[in-house]
């Protein structure tokens, strides 16, 4: 579509400018746009499926030659049911309460001098992902709802699917003179360009392999939201309920072993009835890896896990804070003090008590959808929905006020200097 | 104090571990620690002054030889009044409502499966600054109140002052077995080490020259909170009130020309009575620089500013979004539509209407104090107080719940799969 380098840059700059118009719309108009997208996705389900079949045909060759994994192929393929369900994402995001333009702090500094902090869009977001065409819909909808323009760079393997989905979204936006707000990137040179566009692109959301996410982090000054690793732990405490233990561990490992929130390491207290648990896990077909220092950072992406005996909850927490990726860790225990300590001291985005690590997900958490899961501590941590695509702006309204009329230290005001009233205002 | 490289690393790791104990204290105990620090600062005011005099004696030589600027010297020097006021910072931070450990999102996912998002400390923060000894007190107090351990690296020129202040703070903490929570770094090799401690150090807060802040950003994978430039603008709209204009521009330029929130560029609409304004500004001794493309990013740090005529508010906004640093920009206008457009479209941390840019400050904004001002859009934007030193953690409590029992799509549940209830809970 776009081959020229300067063209692509200009298109991204136009998207950034357009985001201002999008953000200026009343919230119900942005909601309406998402509902139109939902309707168009339903209407165009056949076209989406047919484009996806084209992608799948090419992918099947790569699958045979070993250039593509079965897992990647499964994520690429849209069943008629899945294609028909794409509109659900647009509808569920449209229904989220819009925190855009809300005031999250307000304070009267003095008569006629009022401060507000308002939530506003980041501006232009770039999502770089692979395979799953539904990400195109999810990310676009979250971006548009939050008033952000978005650059979409899907995988080469999903090119036809993404072109059709992108076309649907862009056409709806064109009806509101906002077609510029979405950009489809289709090649690696454009990724390279995105990485250099600090100031134009406000955030990059990479979804893919550890190596890929790390590459993006290492090659751009633009903030990156995402996670490289998903080394999730379960600590089986002394006196853990073995029935709960088996339910949780089985689900955490087997319900979707390739997911980033699947468990990779099981830490067992000697008094945790681990023998019972071991037999039960054997029965479920979970492979034990009596692991060592080199395997504590292994993502199995299959039905295996590392197992370590730890002598105390303190040792378990220390192990997790040393080898974990800060994604999701769980404790299985009937001891509430241990649960509280684990929750307080484990340094991770999600910390669970007697629940499967697999629950770490934006939809599950009630965020509507997610643009990704962040293992960074700053900005947004854990599953990221609309809130993670917003920033804030301090707005001060005066009537010619000058700072030199006020003192910075109420105990040392100079002659004629006033104190601030600092009266919190209801929002 | 510490000369050995591995020692320093071990000390920082111990600080990180200690932060967990600090964060586990009830909020009123952390408040009590700050009040103790305030009392000790008052008691030790003479010792602080005497150490500061020692720093100043060395600095005076550097001042004469031209190795130190007068501005830096002024920031270094503590008057008896200033030294006596250091405890005010500790007291005002102690009085802030502690948002640590509060729940900012809560949702019942199903019976017995409850999600909460709690606010928790980042862990270990490193502040790197120069000259002003009061920063040692401000940053320590904000860090301790928010449950964070802190590495303090002040300027070489303030070494004796900082050692005494650090000693006071550490001794109070020692009384609570928390002495490890504060670390004093004293040389450049330790800065270099801090930059490499990703995973141990959670955030770096550099305060200093543009070049210095940029150096830190370029040489560390650790998140950096701060601002490199402070290119603040005032746009004088058509029909602006000339009296307000002069008050605001004079204050924004002259009340503290070296401050990052001082105005550097004045954009004038031809119909803004700029001639009147020009005469008045002349009278105040503000030097006009009829500027050109090369000066739009100049920080004068003195009584000068760049002046540009713009033909419309749109051109003014475009200029600011092109050349500004996203710090603080103001419009002077009696036209409310123009004010609203300016506030909406200017992409900066602080956007003001009829008020001086100099108001952009944590204390002024009612945040108690600030660790710095951020021009990044992510995490914390503008003056940063306690909130910017916190992250969040998702806590899910269940009773053996497994994800495979639930459907991700209410319209396509498999046999026996349940829907989430997603019932928002009062916090």
UniProtKB/TrEMBL annotation, chains A, B:
Pathway: Amino-acid biosynthesis; L-proline biosynthesis; L-glutamate 5-semialdehyde from L-glutamate: step 2/2. SUPFAM superfamilies: ALDH-like (SSF53720). It is an enzyme of class 1 (oxidoreductase). InterPro entries: Ald_DH/histidinol_DH, Ald_DH_C, Ald_DH_N, Aldehyde_DH_dom, G-glutamylP_reductase_CS, Glu-5-SA_DH, GPR_dom. The keyword Glycosyltransferase does not apply. Residues 402-417 have a biased composition (Basic and acidic residues). Residues 402-427 are annotated as: Disordered. Keywords: Amino-acid biosynthesis, NADP, Oxidoreductase, Proline biosynthesis. It catalyses: L-glutamate 5-semialdehyde + phosphate + NADP(+) = L-glutamyl 5-phosphate + NADPH + H(+). CDD domains: ALDH_F18-19_ProA-GPR. The keyword Transmembrane does not apply. Residues 6-280, 291-365 form the Aldehyde dehydrogenase domain. It holds the Pfam family Aldedh. This is glutamate-5-semialdehyde dehydrogenase. It comes from Potamilus streckersoni.
